[in-house]
Amino acid sequence: MRPVLVHQCSIVGGPHAPPAQRGYPFHHRPEARTVQKTLALFDIDGTLTTADTMFAFARHAVGTTRFVCSLVLLSPMLVLARFGLIHRGAAKGRMLRWMFRGHSRDHLEAAAITFVHTVLPGLLRAAGIQQVRAHHAQGHEVFFVSASLDLWLAPFAAQQDATLICTPTHWAQDRFVGLGGPNCRGVEKVRRLKEQVDLASYPSIAAYGDSSGDTEMLAIATTAHFKPFRDG
Questions:
Q1: Angle separating helix axes 150-159 and 53-62, nearest 10 degrees
Q2: Residues 75-84 pLDDT 10s
Q3: What's the pLDDT score for residue 35?
Q4: Most buried by CB count within 10 Å: which residue of 23, 174, 206, 212?
Q5: What residues contact 70, with CB distance under 8 A and at least 6 apart?
């Protein structure tokens, strides 16, 4: 009401007011800033890295000789998978099962730790990691969404303080036996995301990807970045 407002003016600006308030007819309180909820979604292989982490980890875990011999032996299957003539997920599981045969879960998980600390840093795109940190600095929720396996990506996601959605590993009697679920690629990326978060509650979604396997994830974003970080 007007009378009250005038009365307040006389107190705030009057001669008996505190020195800091004299001459100011009104005392304005700063408005509270509303932080917009933002979801940041990053593909890993080819987006945050310059190479496929699956092949890099397999070589690190089993050694160059077995890795190369396995690729030669399995190359017909890999070519068929590349052109979509056999299921990518099935081919991935068979290849890794062949490469990892004879190695225990303890060995592979220990190899994943050393991989993240000694090999992976050389594959990371500096600009991509800077963008991950920039999202964190703004209070955004950061997710890594990848077709690669949690076996070697979980330590990396933990290192970068990101929530991980990826292809699970299937273990039996302390041995790797294949994929523990669908290959997390294409529509599966979005399906898995919807299991964990309510996408409609985020007015801002930033997504970063580099291949056809990221098409559906990029489509749900308010800001989509295809093949980013190429200068870093």
A1: 110
A2: 999 888 888 8
A3: 55
A4: 206
A5: 58, 62, 95, 98, 99
The answer to whether the beta carbons of residues 206 and 41 sit under 8 Å apart is yes
Does some domain include residue 128?
Answer: yes
What's the distance, CA 172 to chain centroid? 28
Both structure tokens of 159: 């290192």
Burial of 73 (0-12, 13-18, 19+ CB in 10 A): exposed
Q: Which residue, among 81, 65, 55, 115, has the nearest Cα to 213 in the 3D structure?
A: 81
- 33 found inside a domain: no
Q: How far apart are CA 164 and CA 180, in angstroms?
A: 15
Q: What is the domain range of residue 109? A: 38-226
State the pLDDT at residue 81: 84
The one-letter code for the residue type at 172 is: A
Q: Residue 220's pLDDT is what?
A: 98
Whole-number percent of the chain with pLDDT over 70 = 84
- Residue 188 CB neighbour total at 10 angstroms: 20
Q: What is the CATH classification number for the domain harbouring 121?
A: 3.40.50.1000
pLDDT tens digit string along 115-161?
999 999 999 999 999 999 999 999 999 999 999 999 999 999 999 99
* Residue at 17 is within a domain: no
Instruction: Tell me which residue of 125, 145, 116, 130 sits closest to 208, measured CA to CA.
Output: 145
Indicate the number of domains in the chain. Answer: 1
